[in-house]
## 1
Amino acid sequence: MAPAGQPVRGFGRDGMSTNGRRRQIHLAAHFPGVNNITVWSDPEAGSHIDFSSFVHMAQTAERAKFDFFFLAEGLRLREQGGQIYDLDVMGRPDTFTVLAALAAVTDRLGLAGTINSTFNEPYEVARQFATLDHLSGGRAAWNVVTSWDAFTGENFRRAGFLPLDQRYRRAEQFLLTTFELLDSWRGDEIIADKEAGVFLTDPDAGAFAHRDELFDIAGRFNTPRSPQGRPVVLQAGDSDEGREFAAASSDAIFTRHSGYSGGRSFYDDVKGRLARYGRQPDDLVVLPAATFVLGDTDAEAEELSRHVREQQVSGPTAIKLLEQLWNRDLSAYDPDGPLPEFDPVAGENTISLGRASVRMNKDPLGTAAKWRELAEAKHLSIRQLMIEVSARQSFIGSARTVADTMERFVDERACDGFILVPHITPGGLDRFAREVVPLLQERGAFRAEYEDTTLRDHLGLAPLP
Amino acid sequence: MDRCGPEVPLSPGLFLGVALDGTGWHPASWREDAARPTELLTAGYWTDLARTAEAAELDFLTLEDSLGLQSSRAAFHDNRVDLVRGRLDAVMIAALVAPLTQRIGLIPSVTVTHTEPFHISKAIATLDYVSLGRAGVRVQVSARPHEAAHFGRRAELEADDLFGEAADYVEVVRGLWDSWEDDAEIRDVAAGRFVDRSKLHYIDFRGRWFNVKGPAITPRPPQAQPPVMALAHSKVPYRFAAAHADLVLVTPTDAGDVRRILGELETARDIRVLADVVVFLAASRPEAEERKQRLDDLFGHTYRSDALVFTGTPTELSDLMAGWADAGIDGFRLRPGSLPSDLDAIGNGLVPLLRARGLFPEVPRSGTLRARFGWPRPANRFADSGVTA
């Protein structure tokens, strides 16, 4: 149920609601990540570490009335072929520290952090999110990730790794335990009556006890209830278990299905899982990651998009991307020459460490066969092929074309909005905010002003019980 | 070339900081008229205090923290409802106030006993980035069984082990800060290389409590090595602090005790020793005593502390500070009995008096937190000495 006074999110496929208000698009800004999508070689590219870059992008997103700002995280520098991977942007500041600092220089923008459930403890994570929610006045969100590899574990006390089938189990238990901690304060205990000398109404405030096969903890949680009660929970898993986990316990899902038809079927799939958990379709907001290139005309944008992909896939990067599929050293190959004659090494990928996209490729031989066919048909070198097969940006065109397309995706239920992934730091969102957002606002498809203060409200999520 | 700072001349006078915790250090301070106990969980409360401390031209502020609900008992939770309970994460409060202040050093407390050195290292490095070189970190151990139960990983440790683990922890945190050389990021467009990986280093730490591989995910912070602070009261912590901290907080009772403690902290390392004192300040001594007595009555006991509890005028406090300075103390961390009143008295009363006596610099110290303590930006432990490829 939407709270009283809020627009009800019940809309037909035509995007119009019964009260004539357009179906609303949700927009988030993803700070550029540590992969080759982020172009560091461009003259416009600035620091990925200096706080001023984070301030620039977050304040741009807030001026444009975005729902939230998003930080990714990886807890070990990537390696390939036994060496630290040196071709992409690398290095990140600490998530909670940056988000707390951004809370000081923004007012309404949601602040979402990716935090791992394997290499943290519930007590600490619960108080960090509760603190972020207090300091931001109810704007905290948690993208729960479950990476489990021994490679990352080498940086932590909890150095062991989890077998695949246990990672969602741990994530579920971690999330549940964190919720128990956050719920250990109802929110009305602190009265601080100076005259009567009563600070707390309840001597048991914060009491908790949780015991399962993974966590055995008890005591007093020390951060009282925050404005949202809990952070908004995002989840990015795409496997069957991942989708089920999101349907059971997430408020939003961050998906890579940014295309129209893939988006439609993903959307129907995950929304269809909600009833099982007693949840309504609007209780889970579906947000694909979306890259974009804008031009004055569609043709100019197409041309620019090609240029960006060339920047994203340098000769050395093309070889490294090919190695990730071939699962062996190809450093002797010329990026401007043809593909290797032999097939990828089957089995576990050992060449690339710390990269989720590589683990996700289930059929390297099949992919290689397709690539070979494409390269032969179009007479492509390795680099040309890698540019060809590297994902085209999700949205390419003039501001009007991009606004039209985004609106259609949301109206026709391919998604509820987008997490935009700019390819330049820190100015990569500027043009979108300047040109596309006003068009969406004119059409009534995106808020012109913030109507509420908390992120739950921005996302149209019902208040917690 | 590693970027080393020039030698920094040590500015004359005492170092002066304030320890922020809740509504002040007296347990009944929340009942003072000026106290804001319902705002302890808000950004506005901490921003106001940090700005007041900065306006007082203090060198640094510290933020207390713990991984358990406040308790008057060391071993378990006391169930009291008449005292402040609940707090926010100190590193995140420091991060919040960083962009809203320009000069003051920010030193949050972290508990090393139950946390990950990898996470804390990058959190403090990031605090250094967001504050442009004003971060420090106060490390503390937890021997409290009820805090161990919040993590459930292991039973509490003995004192020697707690400090042994803390020593390893600080070593790892510092090693990770150095795991990127300053010029590791090269952005070599022609070669397509973003970093020079020969300037990234595995720390390969192996110890009894944890192993940490490295490198950090966060590049070397602006100060390279943000100052590490530790509070110490006895032999084992003195040994730990002298060997691993840069700023050592101690709790002398008088000038003679200052000399004794400084003797115990003998080390070849270039450390600064600061005395902790709880302060209740007023324009006259009877007024200060009356206020302290009123708070004690509300509390039901005489407030005692690990540090000296001073009750009197700013002039009397400056006398005490002058005497301890003669005994060799480098500075003070004052714990205000009540906030904001005792912090206001430090800024409006004490600081001008210390200046008049030549005990505090006329021009507030500035630059990085390290620089104001007289430490240059250090060379990187992993960098080849003086030779670059």
## 2
Amino acid sequence: MPQILVEALAKTYRVAERAPGLTGALRGLVHRRWRPVHALANVSFSLEAGELLAFIGPNGAGKSTTVKILSGILRPTSGRVEVGGLVPYEDRVRHVARIGVVFGQRSQLWWDLPVIDGFDLLADIYRVEPQRYRRRRDELVTMLRLEPLLDQPVRQLSLGQRMRAEFAAALLHDPAILFLDEPTIGLDAPSKLAVRDFVRRLNREQGVTVLLTTHDMHDVEALAERVIVIGQGRLLTDGPFDSLRASVLAERRLHIDFAGAAPVLEMPGVTVRARTERSLELAFDPTKIPTPKLIAAITAKHAVDDIHVDEPAIEEVIARFYDLHDAGEA
Amino acid sequence: MAAARPYLAAFRARCQLMLQYRAAALAGFATQLWWGAIRILVFAAFYGVNAAAAPISLADAVTYVWLGQALLALQPWIADPEIGLAVRTGGVGYDRLRPLDAYGYWYARSVGWMLARALPRAVLMVLAAGIVLPLVGLGDWAWRPPSGVTAALLFVPAFALMTMLGAAVLMLANIIVAASLNERGVNAVLTPLVIVFSGSLLPLDFYPDALRPFLHVQPLAGLVDIPFRIYFADLKGAAALQGLALQAGWTVVLIGLGRLAMERMMRRLEMQGG
């Protein structure tokens, strides 16, 4: 039995619709029309204990709605959800005691209180036994390098420092499952690395199941073996990250600096993406033209200074994927 | 005790936060001292014209005013601003993630908010109106201690109940704020209702005879009129016990109503998104 089970999940919001302008506002007072918005439609997936799954999708795709339903904040319109054998929105109190949640855009610590006071309060709220709490707190403080921040009020922390404190806050009660809704949003590079490193350790070393949503493809690349792509409330794909990349785009880029002027290249299956006086950037499909063969063909005819191969950036992979499914930002 | 631990923590957190605002406490105290003086002058003028028509003595009226000014922050005349903020910013979502009874969690925080604002001002008011005034020879206008040991002992539960009842009223306001996403409208209705019907503006016995049977049984009487009259033994014996019972009864009823309303409101938030 998987730890998280989602079957045919759907969530429909009602949005008040009204004509623009003052007349529209007046008409809205008398007669309001509602328009259904399908935030999620027929989403199914399951997750085993100890897995790390990333949800990616554009804004408004339904990522946060999914996390909110799984964490017990929202009630789905239809479908079945079980987390650790409990239905989150039916058995809220028991459910939330077993999960940790971090929303990248919100804070769960007390803005005006020192970090350590917030931790103490959360330990009380989650009824963590004092000895266990101290052990867990010290462990998290070490892992997240929080010592120097403990007696500072939360409002004085930088965003990166605050997120580290938020992670500790979400984990003091030792939850088996961690939901992260855009945990790296707005963070600088070192903070992002610290967060990723921490999440990875938590997952690998402590076996915490992690479900995260993100826009940041580097998060996904660094963390997740498994990725769900979601767009306009529909689940577009669910599988290993590498196969996602492979399925969408089997494309390589060849960057060549020539010793002399860049030649005019005409080869089947190869397109010129960019050219300068002495360099070319080519795109090709390595399943049709193997990379060594292409390089050999070029270096046989032209004097080359430098040459290197790379792949399209992962953002591009996803953007193309959305286009393919016509699932860009709604 | 273990069961109460999270709720005590919520209460403590709120107290701790509010106690940081020393300037607000001092400003509140100064305002309430000033208004207290004005209200006493108005009473003095009234008693000067026709003392016989007054339902309580001038000394009791003065104490009533000081008590009311000292404990003004215990009255639920505006919804808890933290709730309005939590609803607007979506912080309510995090509240739903706590393994707690949702009503109890907010209720504990609201009690913390009220007490933490009221207590420092009450202490300052005791010093100013109860100790300094007699020392400077204005004993007639001072805040007097409870009328006897029995009154003092009865005031303890009366005070506890006025706090709990106040929080129950506050919770109803909070829930309406959360449901309507707007606190202005709620406060615009709530403030005058509480100020008039609690007896905060005038002891309820000062209102016309025809209104009094109603005024003395409605829930808001338990916020000011009943506990204060117990304090100076205007309500004593069976009448005092009856007053306490009224406070307790309305507290239970309003908490029950609040829980129902909260459940419906949360159901709607769950449906519509936070």
